[in-house]
Amino acid sequence: MALALLAACGDSTTPPPPEDAGAADAPFVPTDDRDGDGLCDGTEIMRGTDPDAADTDLDGFPDYAEVLLGTNPSLNTSPDRETVFTLRERAEAAIDIPLQQSVFGNGEDYTGSFEALGTPDEAGETATDFYGGGRATFAEPPENVALIDVDEEAFRGVVGRTLLGFELRFVRGASPTRGCIRAHLFRYNVKRSDGRLVGAQRNLLVVLPPSTSLETGEWCRPSSGCL
Ligand SMILES: [Ca+2]
Ligand SMILES: [Ca+2]
User: Fold this and answer.
1) 131-140/94-116 β-pairing
2) pTM value?
3) In angstroms, what is the span from residue 200 Cα to ligand 2's centroid?
4) Domains along the chain?
């Protein structure tokens, strides 16, 4: 009897026509990229970002770029705008970035050095490709420093609480024209003459094609697939 009933129910059941399945009912495919930002839907769910918004926190940095940079794609104060510097992608473009480091010296030397962070992007670029060199610029108060070695990015014989000024230059250089926005992390390290690291400032270089802005320009994305 039960079998007969089951068979009868089965006979009467007809599958819904395919055209009834709307977009909202489409199966979730982790390897899709619905918003086309370069971050796969599965990654977006895992990271807590919106798979239907290329820039979840509306800060101008798409989710894909934020994941690569290690910033928070759901927090619009990350990255901190004070650490973001923009270089235009045009011939002869250059920017100078001033940095300061407070130290307390006992006669030691303090030297700054640039370090690119992160792995090379799809085109093999890091911040190093745009780095044009650093220099030591000022000490405050000046009498706390015996010598400023400008080109060596060094301050010799520092005594007492002193603010050390550095300047980093970034240039367009020989990098190819890509026509899309990308961002590269870098850090400026200040070491004492005994090798101790006394400061490490993390910053972001954004390379921006001409006539675009961070908010409206097209960001570089993976040439195929998604992350
Ligand atoms: Ca996506
Ligand atoms: Ca963002």
Assistant:
1) unpaired
2) 0.82
3) 24
4) 31-79 (no CATH), 84-208 (2.60.40)
